[in-house]
Design brief:
Shape: globular
Radius of gyration: 29 Å
Structural class: alpha/beta
Distance between the termini: 97 Å
Length: 463
């Protein structure tokens, strides 16, 4: 063997051994700050109102796979206990990192919430190198979500409810709106083949379905509507009627209620707020043909699930309650009635928005989790598990083709809400109080003025 041949052989062996050595070893590096942050164990406490914790299991598991130092603890609360529990927890310094809030309540909780920052800086694992693979932990700053992207991603009402003073204060995982549930058996017996599409058809169906005894007591109710005490969504149904007939409910710029005002349309004067209130309460007036409900009835859902009431208004999330209360009830759901079938449909939005609290010790991680959870690919897992309507524009069409979700999905793009101000419960009570007072015999002008004053008070910023 010549010298040159021997040299080439030894040189090739050296290169192979060197390459194997380099491939077999990697190194973990990066800034000490990034490494310390990535190794810090974090638990994000997430309070939710609807569903069950397992609905989010796929999302939280996948998030943890890419963020092994982050654990997510989900707590489910009842809607009626959320506000008090949250106030107490925040007062004691044990509040959650993330909390679901009603879509009309973000302004009221604004001073306790952390707005989405334009960027988030979090530890990220990077793998680089070709011959020698190197794993490094670095602090990486990425943009979050701007207003244009928010509008492109979510439906209009969800955008309007999530933004305060051009800042994003929350992101919705799902969407909900008022629907009409009906007892198929009662409609069949009354020879009503299809549920009503309009309020006129609804009134006719209610009249046919209502049965009274000789003393005028309701034996079978056409619908749970007309009162406030025993109708869970009374104020929302009335507000929905106002939105449909063009009632300007509030002027949020001036901080005043406007539903009591007379408006001019085409040279004619109208009182749409009064018209909506009269229409609603007529269902609880024994003197009216549409009389079907009274304050002596049991609660709306109890009466419906017992088979005594044909129609009840509820959210999509209420279907589980109905099934639980009456597993054998033959019921279906249809869209919220409209004034007519020729105009633009208007439905009533009522849902929850996920927010990050100011008290959170890990606001960047909390917002990062929400941004991750509301990406289309991730949120689709939640929507499928929970079987709920979407707030994502890009997912509406798919749900319109879904046998179960087609009805609520039809309402997503045109469902609306209204500004409740800084004291949303006071605003809701103001609308409900008008129903009570008019049914008790008060003059409608005085009732409207009283309700408007109460709602206006809810719009005033606390000093």
């Amino acid at each position: 063997m010549s010298f040159h041949s021997s040299y080439r052989l030894y040189f090739n062996i050296f290169i192979i051994l060197a390459t194997l050595t380099l491939v077999g070893f990697g190194c973990k590096g990066g800034s000490s700050e990034a490494i310390n942050k990535a190794s810090q164990k974090i638990t994000l406490n997430w309070w939710r109102v609807q569903g069950v914790a397992r609905d989010l299991k796929d999302i939280t598991t996948e998030y943890k796979n890419s963020h092994p130092n982050v654990s997510v603890n989900i707590k489910i609360l009842r809607a009626e206990e959320l506000e008090q529990n949250l106030l107490e927890a925040l007062a004691s310094g044990t509040g959650p990192d993330i909390v679901s809030l009603p879509n009309t309540h973000l302004v009221a909780w604004q001073d306790k919430l952390a707005a989405l920052p334009p960027t988030l800086t979090l530890p990220t694992t990077e793998i680089s190198g070709w011959l020698k693979k190197e794993t490094r932990v670095v602090l990486k700053t990425n943009p979050t979500l701007n207003l244009r992207e928010l509008r492109e991603t979510f439906v209009d009402t969800a955008v309007a409810d999530s933004v305060i003073n051009n800042k994003i204060f929350g992101l919705p995982l799902s969407f909900d709106s008022l629907l009409l549930y009906y007892n198929r058996d009662l409609l069949n017996v009354a020879d009503i083949p299809t549920p009503p599409l309009t309020w006129s058809e609804f009134s006719e169906a209610v009249t046919r379905l209502t049965k009274l005894d000789k003393q005028g007591k309701i034996v079978q109710s056409g619908a749970a509507i007309g009162e406030a005490t025993n109708v869970p969504y009374a104020a929302d149904i009335l507000a929905g009627l106002m939105l449909q007939n063009g009632t300007p409910i509030v002027d949020d710029r001036n901080g005043s209620a406007t539903f009591a005002k007379i408006i001019n349309r085409g040279g004619e004067e109208f009182a749409p707020g009064a018209d909506a209130l009269r229409f609603y309460t007529d269902f609880a007036s024994p003197a009216k043909e549409t009389y079907t409900w009274s304050r002596d009835e049991s609660s709306a859902f109890e009466s419906f699930t017992s088979g005594k009431t044909a129609f009840v208004f509820g959210l999509w999330q209420d279907r589980n309650l109905i099934k639980t209360l009456s597993p054998k009830l033959n019921f279906e759901v249809t869209n919220f009635p409209q004034l007519d079938t020729n105009g633009k449909p208007i439905y009533y939005a009522k849902y929850y928005i996920e927010t990050v609290t100011k008290q959170s010790k890990h606001p960047s991680e909390a917002w990062d989790l929400l941004l991750f959870a509301t990406r289309p690919a991730q949120v689709s897992k939640y929507l499928t598990a929970a079987k709920v309507p979407t707030a994502h524009r890009g997912l509406v069409t798919k749900q319109l083709d879904d046998l179960d979700l087609a009805i609520p999905a039809k309402q997503i793009l045109t469902a609306r809400s209204w500004y409740h101000g800084y004291k949303p419960k006071l605003a809701w009570d103001g609308i409900s109080s008008m129903i009570h007072q008019l049914n008790a015999g008060a003059e409608i002008e005085a009732v409207l003025q009283f309700g408007a004053a109460q709602v206006t008070q809810s719009l005033q910023k606390p000093k």
